[in-house]
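Format notes (please read before filing issues)

Several people have asked whether sequences and structure tokens are stored in separate files. They are not. Every record keeps both together, in the order shown below: the sequence lines, then the token lines. Line labels are part of the format and must not be stripped during preprocessing.
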Amino acid sequence: MTARLAHIVRHPIKSIGYETLHHASLSKGRVLPFDRTWAVSHEAAGFEGPLGHWAPKRNFVRGVAAPGLMAVAARAMDDGTIELTHPELWHLRLDPDSPADQAKLIEWLRPLWPDNRPAPRAVERVADIALTDMPEPYISILSLSSLAMLSEAAGQPLSPHRFRGNLWVEGWEPAAERDLIGRRLRIGTAELEIAMPITRCRATCANPETGTEDVETLRLLESLWGNTQFGVYATVLTGGDIASGDRVEIL
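Then the structure lines:
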């Protein structure tokens, strides 16, 4: 079976909503456009705002601390605003760069954030830097076949959105991506190089439809493959256009 690009997903605000795309333009040495462009820092963040550089994920609001965040979906609008939805909250449409809308986002998040955690503090953005989990401008690549194997072990279908990935490939053998470190891929007119595996946290235990933990994902990963890795990080070597359905070729 020929491997194909099944899904393209970005997360404009780190840990707060996912958005599915039909196509995207990749640039050399850059992340997926508008992926983790913004993030929400909390009151225990190790920096004074506003943020002026990349910072580790421990400084930000994340699903590992608040599983309810995993049920947030996002949609970019034509006017540049972002609409956030959650099954238990009202729809919020905001301009993440607007101070007034940033305050609305902080309030919107409060019902989803545990009282015993440092409260959401501010919306952060750093020019030309994505606030991804790694300082390198990686794009994450995951396999639907591996997800199907994990779903079988879980005894229920698992949503791709548990893993907050960017590119989902259909047609690889289960776990084949684990053997691709250092290899190159061509997707559409772009070329990428696989850099390293992704180690997962408990955020993946939460159901993206309900925002509640319902599967011990990390235990299942350990039982299947002996570690908690799922998916790989890649660097864009040659920019180009990608679209759902494009062939994924191992070079």
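For reference, the curators noted about this record: Helices lie at 99-109, 144-154, 217-225. Residues 33 and 136 are 15 Å apart (CA to CA).
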